[in-house]
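If your schedule permits, I should be very grateful for your opinion on a structural question. I have a record of one protein: its chain in single-letter code and its fold written as C-alpha cells. Kindly check, if you would, that the fold set down in the C-alpha cells agrees with what the sequence suggests. I remain grateful for any guidance, and I place the record below:

***
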Amino acid sequence: MLDKYHLCIVLAVIILGIAKTGFGGGIGILSILLMGLVMPAGQMIGVMGVLLVIVDLVANLHYYGDYEWRVLRWMLPGALVGVAFGSATLLAMRGSSPEAFNRHLSLAIGVICLIFVLMQCYRLTGRTIPTFPPNNTSRLTVGAIAGGVSTVSHSAGPILTLYLLQEHIDKRRLIGTMLLYTLLINFTKLVSYLTITHTVTPSTFRQSLWMLPFLPVGTLLGVWMNRRLPEKPFVIIMYIASAITAAEMIRKALL
C-alpha cells in the first residue's frame, strides 16, 4: 500500500500527464502543489524541472510545426529575461537557511498557484479577465512574466492561456505555440537549475527518473478522459482540489 509521500508523487505525475493531453495545462497546477506538500519546495522545483522537459518533448511531437512564429519570436526573448529574473529570485531566497528557503519558496508557490486557480475559476463563469492587447510589446512582456513565474513556481500556464486567447490563433496552432514555448522555457530553466541555482542535483535527477513510468499513464488517461468525460465538471473538481492544496501549502509555510 502506498504511503502519503508516494501516493502524492504518483498522483502528481499522472495529473501532469493528464494536463498535457486531456484538459489543458491549467490543471497541472495541482501536480505542483501535491508534490510540494510532501517534499521541500526547493527539491520539488528540481524534480519537476526535469519531468516538465521530458513531458513537453513528448507532447511537442504531436504538434510539430503548428506554431505561431509572429507571437513566439517576441515571447521567447522575453522568456529569457524572465528566467534570469526568476533565477535571481531563487538565489536571493537561497541566501537564507535551507529551512527558511523552503518555507519562503513554499509560500510563494502556494500564493501564486492560489491566485491562478481563482483566475481560472473566474473564467469558468464565462467572464473575461482583462489582459494585454495583442502586440509585440505585450508579447515580450507576457513572455518575461511567464518566464519569471515559471522559474519560481512552474505555474505560468494560466498566464500564457489568458494572453494567447487574445491572439485569436487557430486552436491547434495555439496549443502548439504554448507547447513549444513551455518546452524552450523549461529547457532554459533546467540549464539555470543545473548551473546557477543548483536546484537540480544528482539526487533530484534520480527521483525524476523513477517517476517517469507514470507519465505515459497520465498522458494516455488524459486522451481517454478528454473523449469520455465532460470537461467543465472535471476541471472544476481539479481547481477546487488545487485551491485546497494551495491553501494547505500556505498554511504549512506560515506555521
